[in-house]
Amino acid sequence: MASLTVRRAREEDARAIVQLTQENLRGRLVDGGHADGFLSIALTEEEVWEANRSLYPTTPFLGRPLDQWRRFVYGPVCVARDARGSGVLQALFAGLLDEVAGRYDVGAAFADAANPRSLQAHVRKLGMQVLRGFEFEDRSYHLLAFGAPPSRG
């Protein structure tokens, strides 16, 4: 893979980000595109807070319930089809870890159970831990977590 620079998204990136996510939403993929990975849903603020209230207090990670850590929600992440498998996901994740180092203890993520490519990428390539399954709007998901690094500097 050619050199890759990771940076925070800028306002001028919004159109390309929206286009990439729209092209990869589960409901828009055709001809078996789901096997290559997809985005499930766009979480609303209310849904994030519901997970905070209902899942985190009863889900342990590293010996403590998730709600007892300084935590953030990771994702969703979407890599363009022609860039998948080239290290983009790992580079983005490394950039994220630099951003959250010392500010948070734990990141939490959600993966659609019907999207094994995403689940395997996050577990195998990024080292996330599957904590539990759960149901949301008649679909099955996995709750994953990973430790954030201490302050770097």
Sheet with most strands: strand arrangement: 3-4-6-5
Tell me how many strands there are: 6
Residue fraction in strands: 15-25%
Task: Give the oligomer, counting copies of the same chain as homo and different chains as hetero.
Answer: single chain
Q: Report the major sheet.
A: 4 strands, mixed
Distance between the termini: 28 Å
Structural class by secondary-structure content: alpha+beta
Instruction: List segments where confidence is low: pLDDT < 50 over at least 5 consecutive residues.
Output: none
- Individual helix count: 4
- Helix fraction, binned, reads 25-40%
Radius of gyration: 16 Å
Overall 3D shape = globular
Average pLDDT, to the nearest integer? Answer: 79
Q: Element order, helices and strands?
A: HHEEEHEHEE
Task: Give your account of this protein's structure.
- With 153 residues, the chain is α+β, with helices and mostly antiparallel strands.
- The strands form 2 sheets. Strands 3-4-6-5 form a 4-stranded mixed sheet, covered by helices on one side. The protein has a two-stranded antiparallel sheet with strand order 1-2.
- The chain contains 4 helices and 6 strands, in the order ααβββαβαββ.
